[in-house]
Design goal:
The chain is of the alpha/beta class and 334 residues long. Helices cover 40% and strands 22% of the residues.
C-alpha cells in the first residue's frame, strides 16, 4: 500500500477577512508572503526530487483562504499545478479554505482544474466558540459548505481545533461527532497554542485565557483519535508542524506543543488497551502480541508503556504477530 504525501504550497492570510484570535501565520508556516509563479514551481520541484516513488503525492494550496483570493489568482496557482497532474507526477490537488467562501462557481473552477479534495477550517462546531475565536463564520456556514462540497463530488476535509477560548472537552467531542456526521474523509486536529503577536497573547497575559496543558490535550486526543479512525476519517495532522521559524524563535508563549503529539496520544490509547487485557493474577512474565504495524505505539513513545509495565513485571515482551488484528492485543503471562 502506498503512503500519502502532500507537497505544501503555503498561501498565508491571503483573503482572510478576519484575524482569528489564535492566528499568526508567519509563526505557523514560516512564510511571510504568498509565493510567485517561479517560487511555486520551485517548491513543487524541490519536494518531488526528494519524495520516494512509493508515495502517493498531491499538491496542496494550504495555509490561507484559497477560494477567497481573486479567481484569476486562483487560476494562476491551479495552472501551475495542472501539468504535474496531467503528467502523472502527482495524483491529485487539494486546497484549504474557509466555510464561508464556498459556492457553486468556486467549486466549478476547482473541478475544472482537477482539485479533488477541499479542506475547510471548521475549527469548532459551536457558534459561541467560533464567535470568541473571531472566526467570522457560523456552524451553519460550515454545514452548508460541507454538504455542497460533498454533493459536487469532492473529498471533504474538516479541520478542527481543541482548547479554543470558551471551548471544553465536551465541545471537542461534539465537533468530532459533527465532522463525522458531515461525511468528512479527513481531518486535521490543532490544539490551540498561544503565539506572539495574536489577540490570544493579550488574553493570556490578562489571565483571561488558559491553554490546555499537554497532559489534558493528550488525554483528549486519546478519546478523539479512535472516534475518527472507527468512522474511517483519516487524520492527516495532529498539532502544528515544528517548522524552523516556529521552533527557533520566541513565538510560542504557552500551550500544548509537542513535536510528536499524535505519538503521545497513540501511546496513551495503547496503554489503556494493554491495561484492560492484563491478567488479574500475579505474574513474573507477560508477553503482549500485537500486529507489526502497532508495535511502536504499543511499546509507547520513548518506550513509556513498556517502562511502566517493567515496574510491575520482571520480564515484559512485545511480540509482533501478523495474525493479530490491527488495534488489538493478546496478553499471555506466566
Amino acid at each position: 500500500m502506498k503512503s500519502f504525501y502532500t507537497i505544501p504550497v503555503f498561501i498565508p492570510e491571503m483573503a482572510c477577512p478576519h484575524r482569528c484570535v489564535f492566528c499568526n501565520q508567519h509563526s505557523i508556516t514560516s512564510v511571510l508572503q504568498a509565493p510567485g509563479k517561479k517560487e511555486t514551481r520551485g517548491i513543487i520541484e524541490k519536494y518531488l526530487s526528494t519524495i520516494p516513488t512509493n508515495k502517493t503525492v498531491d499538491i496542496g494550496f494550504l495555509g490561507g483562504n484559497f477560494t477567497g483570493i481573486p479567481l484569476r489568482e486562483q487560476e494562476t496557482y491551479l495552472q501551475i499545478a495542472r501539468p504535474y497532474l496531467q503528467q502523472g507526477r502527482v495524483g491529485s490537488l487539494r486546497v484549504s479554505t474557509r466555510p464561508d467562501y464556498i459556492d457553486e462557481k468556486v467549486l466549478a473552477l476547482l473541478s475544472e482544474y482537477g482539485v479533488t479534495t477541499i479542506e475547510l477550517g471548521a475549527q469548532s462546531m459551536r457558534d459561541d466558540v467560533l464567535q470568541k475565536a473571531g472566526r467570522g463564520h457560523s456552524v451553519a456556514d460550515t454545514t452548508r459548505a460541507a454538504k455542497l462540497i460533498k454533493q459536487s463530488g469532492f473529498s471533504l476535509g474538516l479541520q478542527m481545533m481543541t482548547g479554543l477560548p470558551g471551548d471544553s472537552d465536551d465541545g471537542a467531542r461534539h465537533t468530532t461527532k459533527r465532522i463525522i456526521e458531515l461525511g468528512a474523509s479527513n481531518t486535521r486536529i490543532y490544539p490551540t497554542l498561544v503565539l506572539k503577536g495574536t489577540h490570544l497573547e493579550e488574553l493570556w497575559q490578562q489571565k483571561a485565557y488558559r491553554p490546555q496543558t499537554l497532559e489534558e490535550t493528550v488525554a483528549l486526543l486519546a478519546e478523539l483519535l479512535p472516534l475518527f479512525e472507527e468512522n474511517r476519517v483519516d487524520i492527516l495532522r495532529t498539532g502544528l508542524h515544528p517548522t524552523e521559524g516556529f521552533l527557533n524563535g520566541n513565538d510560542l508563549l504557552d500551550g500544548p506543543f509537542h513535536p510528536a503529539l499524535k505519538a503521545l496520544a497513540l501511546s496513551r490509547i495503547w496503554k489503556k488497551k494493554i491495561e484492560a487485557a492484563l491478567p488479574q493474577q500475579a505474574a513474573n512474565r507477560i508477553e503482549i502480541a500485537v500486529n507489526p504495524a502497532d508495535i511502536p505505539h504499543a511499546v509507547g513513545y520513548q518506550s513509556e508503556n513498556k517502562k511502566l509495565l517493567q515496574k510491575r513485571y520482571r520480564n515484559v515482551v512485545f511480540k509482533q504477530d501478523a495474525a493479530t488484528r490491527k488495534g488489538a492485543c493478546h496478553v499471555d503471562c506466566c
